[in-house]
Q: What sequence folds into this?
């Protein structure tokens, strides 16, 4: 019998399993220890591994990321938590100028096995400074890997792969999915491999995290209308499994990308640019990017829900693509 | 005296230097300071002749600080510093030719020509990097201290930082984190009295930067940064405290840069006579005088040591100049492992 756990439990288990497996792994962040994390996704770690390996930090995001960098250069394998992904802005220099570039700037002398975990995304009513899906901020910074797990299996597996990776990996954990249930599977776990969530012949839909689930829901509704969506979750944005999308596109000839977050400078637009450049002959119709409104994330529930692509929006866009 | 943090934070330069015996390694110390001086003089010339790109930040006049501190480093200790970091990197043992080559953007440079003047690193020697963003290396130095504490190595993480960096957020976050975790970290403020083009007094409400230590409950010490032996004495206490598990120390070394902020700065903002006052306190002649007065070397012997170091520096530069530029395939290397 498969045991079902939540995403938040899967995260705690992944950290525990890495702390157990490797004495060089340490974990720190604001309230991650004695309090078990503000999202309760690190419950029990402090009691099990002690205050040396599971450390509560001051509210100092620059110091949190920088400390992870220095510790990694000296041979540790740190997992750092930035409570809300929006607060990555406070540590932008350490992430974009230091963490991402340290290996390159030292001509390959430094190795940076740093994992930075952050709670991501909208839908929980936290307003504009606690609700952004900020993964796109880092897309333009070579040197970082970016993981965007959307299931229990991926919250666990991608986090373990991130900790074992010798490069900096930003892991975005969607706070609206923390209570989602599912099962973890045995490894090995890899970054850069997309998941075929649902096969379908008509439209290739690429979506992550919350949008992956909305795309799947839309696919189930549309199946009743005879429209079959193929849903792909890339799981990591860097590296991106272009091949999985191209292979699907070769069969469906239609591409719909669903992105939580404004359209400008995002992974969705980048994916469409790469696909149209490399596989122009595959497209029967122009590709479509369904993204959030170009506004900050609003607070009121009605506005916040309207801000990002809904299941119905995916259905409308998919119908359009098929009808064109 | 009670060990309150405020007492610990009181600067006490008058207590320093009681032990003025010439150390056995005096020649090495002098050689190290001269190497930095002549290295920087050469770099200035290289920029002037267009052989080097971007900018550079020279440290002539400040040599006693990195040399005094880095003479205490043992294998496994680590050092980080600012973009005015040629001196610290050389003092910590980086090869002169590979350092020149990095600044020249050559294949054989410390970082293969990827970093340049502001990004010198030699990890095998514990030089984990000079940093081009003010104060950004301080959190990284804290992390190196955390690794030493975690692995119980007894090693120290020392960070040189400028007076200007005491006003950036990373300074505060780092000092507090190092203090609250009692990490083996030594932060040395090279107070050269100017943050880029602005005098300290125009940007900072206090004049004694070591007093900031009070806010973190750690010892803060002021030292004459142009007095090599005083610097070493103060740093030795800080290193001992760090190795004993007693946490970080903030040292303020009072010093002066003879040149402007960067290559495009003629330093016209300095009041008349200020440079001359500091030239009279130049750390190299001061230390040479200590050596001569002790009878360890004659003026002629010191002169020939200078000539010898100057020759070594020129030879290192000639070697670096003879090395090729990086091959184009290096562009894509070292982004990921």
A:
């Amino acid at each position: 019998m498969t045991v079902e756990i939540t995403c938040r439990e899967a995260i705690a288990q992944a950290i525990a399993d890495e702390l157990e497996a490797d004495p060089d792994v340490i974990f720190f962040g604001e309230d991650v220890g004695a309090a078990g994390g503000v999202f309760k996704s690190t419950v029990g770690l402090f009691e099990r591994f002690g205050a040396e390996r599971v450390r509560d930090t001051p509210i100092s995001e620059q110091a949190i990321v920088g400390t992870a960098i220095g510790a990694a250069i000296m041979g540790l394998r740190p997992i750092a938590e930035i409570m809300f992904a929006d607060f990555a802005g406070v540590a932008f220099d350490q992430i974009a100028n230091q963490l991402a570039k340290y290996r390159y700037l030292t001509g390959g002398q430094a190795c940076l096995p740093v994992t930075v975990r952050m709670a991501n995304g909208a839908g929980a009513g936290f307003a504009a400074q606690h609700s952004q899906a900020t993964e796109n901020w880092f897309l333009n910074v070579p040197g970082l890997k970016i993981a965007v797990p959307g299931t229990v299996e991926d919250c666990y597996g991608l986090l373990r792969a991130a900790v074992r990776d010798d490069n900096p990996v930003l892991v975005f954990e969607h706070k609206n999915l923390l209570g989602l249930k599912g099962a973890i599977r045995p490894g090995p776990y890899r970054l850069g491999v997309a998941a075929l969530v649902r096969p379908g012949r008509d439209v290739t839909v690429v979506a992550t995290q919350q949008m992956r689930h909305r795309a799947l829901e839309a696919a189930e509704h549309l199946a009743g209308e005879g429209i079959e969506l193929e849903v792909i979750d890339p799981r990591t944005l860097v590296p991106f499994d272009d091949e999985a999308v191209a292979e699907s596109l070769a069969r469906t000839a239609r591409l719909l990308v669903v992105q939580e977050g404004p359209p400008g400078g995002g992974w969705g637009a980048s994916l469409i640019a790469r696909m149209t450049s490399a596989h122009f002959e595959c497209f029967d119709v122009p590709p479509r990017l369904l993204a959030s409104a170009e506004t900050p994330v609003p607070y009121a529930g009605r506005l916040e829900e309207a801000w990002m692509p809904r299941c119905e929006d995916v259905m409308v866009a998919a119908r359009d693509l098929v009808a064109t | 005296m009670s060990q309150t943090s405020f007492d610990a934070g009181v600067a006490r330069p008058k207590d320093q230097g009681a032990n003025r015996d010439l150390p056995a390694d005096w020649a090495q110390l002098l050689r190290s300071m001269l190497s930095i001086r002549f290295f920087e003089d050469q770099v200035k010339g290289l920029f002037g002749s267009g052989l080097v790109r971007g900018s550079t930040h020279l440290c002539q006049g400040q040599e006693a600080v990195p040399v005094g501190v880095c003479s205490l480093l043992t294998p496994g200790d680590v050092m980080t510093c600012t973009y005015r970091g040629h001196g610290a990197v050389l003092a910590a043992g980086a090869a002169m030719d590979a350092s020149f080559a990095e600044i020249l953007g050559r294949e054989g440079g410390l970082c293969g020509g990827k970093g340049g003047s502001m990004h010198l690193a030699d990890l095998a020697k514990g030089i984990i990097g000079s940093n081009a963003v003010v104060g950004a290396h301080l959190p990284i130095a804290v992390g190196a201290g955390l690794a030493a504490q975690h692995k119980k190595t007894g090693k120290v993480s020392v960070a040189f930082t400028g007076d200007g960096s005491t006003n950036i957020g990373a300074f505060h976050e780092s000092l507090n984190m190092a203090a609250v975790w009692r990490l083996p970290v030594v932060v040395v403020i090279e107070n050269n009295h100017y943050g880029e083009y602005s005098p300290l007094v125009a940007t900072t409400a206090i004049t004694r930067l070591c007093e900031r230590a009070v806010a973190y409950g750690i010892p803060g010490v002021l030292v004459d940064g142009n007095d090599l032996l005083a610097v070493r004495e103060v740093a030795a206490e800080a290193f001992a405290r760090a190795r004993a598990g007693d946490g970080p120390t903030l040292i303020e070394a009072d010093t002066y840069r003879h040149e402007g902020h960067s290559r495009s700065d003629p330093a016209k903002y300095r009041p008349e006579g200020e440079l001359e006052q500091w030239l009279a306190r130049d750390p190299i002649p001061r230390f040479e005088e200590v050596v001569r007065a002790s009878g360890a070397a004659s003026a002629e012997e010191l002169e020939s040591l200078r000539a010898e170091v100057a020759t070594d520096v020129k030879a290192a530069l000639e070697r670096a100049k003879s090395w090729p530029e990086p091959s184009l395939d290096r562009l894509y290397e070292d982004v990921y492992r």
